[in-house]
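Data card: per-record layout.
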Amino acid sequence: MPIDATQPYEEGNIFARILRGEIPANKVYEDEHALAFHDINPQAPTHILVIPKGAYVSWDDFSARASDAEIAGFVRAVGLVARAAGLVAPGYRLLANIGRDGHQEVPHLHVHVFAGRPLGPMLAR
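The structure for this 125-residue chain is written out next.
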């Protein structure tokens, strides 16, 4: 069920639990600002999630409250993950669902990295 991106951060969300080590994840990258791991229900041959380590619900929340170091670290992590996975030359898609209309399901900011095949048009008409 999509969430309201203006709601307060929920400490029990699945990504918060992964960050606390309560739920395992197949990690591909981690630093002080970000964590990247394979999606458990991949929608493409390569489907990696990149999340900031701070408690942010959405891009709006993140851009308003995160430090410059957190913002730079998160954005750099997305690029590092794509390069390390060999996705730059063939191409990849980044997707961040925000709020109900964007169909955000987990109330923790996250970016999907999709690749591994031609992905077609971004939105169905």
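Known properties of this structure: The radius of gyration is 14 Å. Helices lie at 14-19, 59-65, 68-84.

See the next section for split statistics.
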